[in-house]
Model the fold of this input.
Amino acid sequence: MACETTNGNGSSTSYLVKKATLVLLPKTIDYSLKPFYIAIAPEFPGEIYALRFGDFRVIHTRHTRWSEKGVWKQVFDVLAKDADNEYAAIDATIVRAHQHSAGAKKNTRLDTCETQAIGRSKGGLSTKIHATCDALGNPTGFYLTPGQAHDLQGADVLLDAIDEIGALLADKAYDAEQRVLERLKEANCEAVIPPKSNRKEHREYDKDMYKWRHLR
Done:
């Protein structure tokens, strides 16, 4: 795909881009929000990034500062308020940590297993991402733990932030009376969670609604 960009002196430069997506930015955007408009595009010439956003080091520095100051979290919280609360879903997944994540010099006061959310599980160093989403599949909350943590550790935190939802969809890992089911019952929320096979008392759930987990 051929694309063309305008240089600062008014001349234009053409690039041949393969397997990439070019995001054209309007001239009226607020360039104080540059990190919002960064596009992930493999094989994309670095010159285009520089022309559109400036030096990549400046972008990285701003992104890091916003992360440390909680700006990204504030933006996420505002967007999450506009959620479709017909039902919500919760789940967790594990991501492998890079091998260099354990080799860098650490600040012993700040860098602990809890703050970095890096743990040692069967597959090596890993992090578990716990997340909730609304009926449209948009994320409404997330929480990080070391990879060996149980899914319920994320539910302990994320369920506190879920309000006024009609139902909660989750897998068998969340079939826990005190930590999940009783809390949902108190909130008048339907638990669409299949029971574990070792349950002494069988519990019914909406099997058709449970399939909606795979439609988002």
